[in-house]
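Hi there,

I know you've been waiting on this one. I reran it after we fixed the sequence typo, so this is the corrected version. Both the input and the resulting structure follow.
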Amino acid sequence: MTSRRSARLLAKAASPILTPKASKVLKKPVTKKPAVRVAAAVLSTKVPAIDAGVTHATLADPGMMEAAILYLKSADPKLGQIIDQTTDECSMSLTRDDDNETSFVSLCKSVIFQQLAGNAARAILLRFLKRYGTLTDTSKAPLLNDDSSELQLTDFEFPTAQQVVAMDVEEMKAVGLGQRKAEYLQAVAEQFNSGALSEKMLLGMSDENV
């Protein structure tokens, strides 16, 4: 049974906040969501200098990731204990990332990986590359028709923008791409192929403009 004192406290907590004199309703302070607090803390943290050519810090940068982890540990001690017990490296860098790949290839891979589990996306990307990519080692060509072969994503060069534009959407769907993703890939390729987008342009653009 709730006591009278508890009932009054509950009623007070649920009622609007009033000023002593004018009894005006005051807005309760807005509490930022955890994700917003994390982002704010990370963005306000001083990080090491970014590599030449890169104009924006991201969680892929070690300094930013370290700041984010420290904030999470301080905000949630229980989560902090789990983090401390984890031996695996924490990183936002994905296994598909390659510092040497072009922006065009990176964007295409992002389209393929969107809303998919990592393993499923990698399987689709590998089928895509086996069908449309170029083997860096031609001696491995006999393995292309072997589904159980140990060909890796790194064994292929991604097709060029011009090649992607010329692809047939129905054939692209045969490797596991959906209609929309096939169309998005061609849309990205058309932008690069026409010159509307380029490596140099993207490196100089802000996150908002991208």
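Quick highlight: Residues 162 and 194 are 9 Å apart (CA to CA).

Best,
R. S.
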